[in-house]
Amino acid sequence: MDSHPGTQELLEIARSIALEAGALAKRRRSEGVEVAASKSSPEDVVTHADREAEALIRQRLAEVRPRDGFFGEESGAERGTSGLTWVVDPIDGTVNFLYGIPQWAISIAVVEGEPEPTTWRALAGCVFAPATDEVFTATAGGGAFRNGEAIAASPASDLSQALVATGFSYSADRRGQQAAVVSGLITRVRDIRRIGSAALDLCYVGAGRVDAYYERGLNPWDMAAGALVAAEAGARVTGWNGAPAGREFLLAGAPGIVEGLEKVLREQFPLRGELA
């Protein structure tokens, strides 16, 4: 196995490539967005900009880290020989991007081990939101930052006063189930937010803009960089019953409310353990 570079070096690679890809995507947004295809459902779209941005990211990483693996939303996985894998969402929040809503981002993380959230060790990550010109970064053990300034998760300790973010599936049936969960939760917290980008939801937890965020069915690229930002900012990031966060369940939030919020969510989710 190759010796790994330092996390700051890895972060600088992620950051510089995210900025370049973000500039490309922003330019394409100003030129007009075209839907290239649907994926899991007619609502789950991919634009030409998604594909173009991922191709750029993949090319740049191959130039500077040719022995690393790659796992991207649009072009799939490719194993490497270094023990490191770059986990990439070229545009997280594609529907926001399509409609001109500013909450979309480029997410790039590098992880050690298999590209599976429940087993990997995230080393560095960058989430760049071109429409708002915000760059969220983190390294393992090195803290989390927004545009170079340290950020910290909310100190919230009262669940009834917590602002909680979540997301919804592209499957109509699962959206109905998730809406039922929100219906049972909304009277137990201050309010609910649905931002439309998991990467930014997690960064907003890290920045204290929301007190917590939960979702089921996330893909590795949805959470890789953002979960590291949230954790390094002092948020607790977990799955059910203290298991590692992953596709089955992710909850990130102020440490003082996570346990209580998970308890409420366990009461509300009708199909915990089943993901259609």
The proportion of strand residues reads 25-35%
Largest sheet entry: 8 strands, mixed
- The CATH homologous superfamily of the largest domain is named Fructose-1,6-Bisphosphatase, subunit A, domain 1
Strand order of the largest sheet: 4-3-5-6-7-8-9-10
Please provide the ordered H/E string of secondary-structure elements. Answer: HEEHEEEHEEEEEEHEHEHEEH
Please give the count of helices: 7
What is the SS-derived class? Answer: alpha+beta
Q: What is the second-level CATH architecture of the largest domain?
A: 2-Layer Sandwich
Low-confidence stretches: 37-44
- Total strands: 15
The CATH topology of the largest domain? Fructose-1,6-Bisphosphatase, Chain A, domain 1
End-to-end Cα distance: 38 Å
